[in-house]
Amino acid sequence: MFAFSLDTSDEPQFISLIEDVKNLESNKTNFGYRKLRLINIENFEQLKSEIEKETCNFNNQGYVYLLDQKNSTVTGTFISNITITKSKKNHFSLNGYVWHQPKGYYKAWKMKVNSQITSKNIWRNFEKDELQGWLVFALNNMINESSKENLNIQIDGNNFHNLDEFFCNLGEEINGIAGYFGRNIPALYDCLRGDFGVKSIEELTWKNHQKSKKLFKTKFHKILQIFEEFNVKINLQ
After folding, report:
1. Which helix (H) or strand (E) holds 38?
2. Cα–Cα distances in Å, from 197 out to 112, 144, 183, 203, 231?
3. Which residues pair with 187 in a beta bridge?
4. With a threshold of 0.90, does the pTM exceed it?
5. What tens digit of pLDDT does each residue of 28-49 get?
6. Phi and psi (nearest 5°) for 64?
7. Paired sense of beta strands 201-207 and 151-156, if any
């Protein structure tokens, strides 16, 4: 379930619940002008009227929120310069500048809301182009707890087949189910600096590393260099 709120107060004021919203995600850009489809709007006339009124006042910006079973906010997407382009029954389409999340992001959050993320490797149910969405979800889902120290972690080159899968696997090896520890090489560096569930890693054992070396090419050596920069002992097997 989704909800829509205009950006008119510090706390979101839901105008209407919405069964589904299409086209919220994009892998091409973080921000862009696009059309969204709002499906099965509960308070259709009120939402349409409020958006049209704010358009006249040049204050037509708001949020689409994903809700949990208690209708509490889980995550949201900001939209500006909103205009309604087509309406029919209890659906309508609107155009606006959208701050996108990667494809797969809302899929992951919906699984979280429905208590479907209960074990490691759920990300294997995602398509290749949805993995960045999973990783951004994992980042936003993090609960800051006391940092672990002197970790010995083990990864296996047979368990991932591209760089996104590597980061999905690494995040769970370090921080457990749906864990996060970077979604690209610069983010890995940031995670090793601290505040991502880990104070220090003592040793990284990389089984079947030759497979990863062939797959990642120069990025394989860059990953090792980053770990070594933080005094992590590397054990290649």
Report:
1. strand 31-41
2. 20, 6, 15, 16, 17
3. none
4. yes
5. 888 999 999 999 999 999 999 9
6. -105, 125
7. parallel
Cβ proximity of 151 and 201 under 8 Å = yes
pLDDT digits over 163-183, tens only?
999 999 999 999 999 999 999
Q: b/e string for 63-93 if b means 16 or more Cβ within 10 A?
A: bbbbbeeeeeebbbbebeebebeebeebbbb
DSSP states of 125-194: GS-GGGHHHHHHHHHHT----PPB-SEEEEEEGGG-SSHHHHHHHHHHHHH-TT--S-SSHHHHHHHHTS
Q: What angle, 0 to 180 degrees and rounded to 10, lies between the N-to-C axes of helices 209-216 and 218-229? A: 120
Q: Cβ–Cβ contacts within 10 Å for residue 32, how many?
A: 12
Q: What are the helix (H) ranges across the chain? A: 44-56, 105-113, 131-140, 163-175, 185-192, 209-216, 218-229
For residue 19 the two structure tokens come to 């069964």
Instruction: Decide: helix, strand or coil at residue 96.
Output: strand
Q: Which two tokens stand for residue 74?
A: 């889980």
Q: Distance between CA 216 and CA 170 in Å, rounded?
A: 15
Q: Token match 């049209």: residue?
A: 52
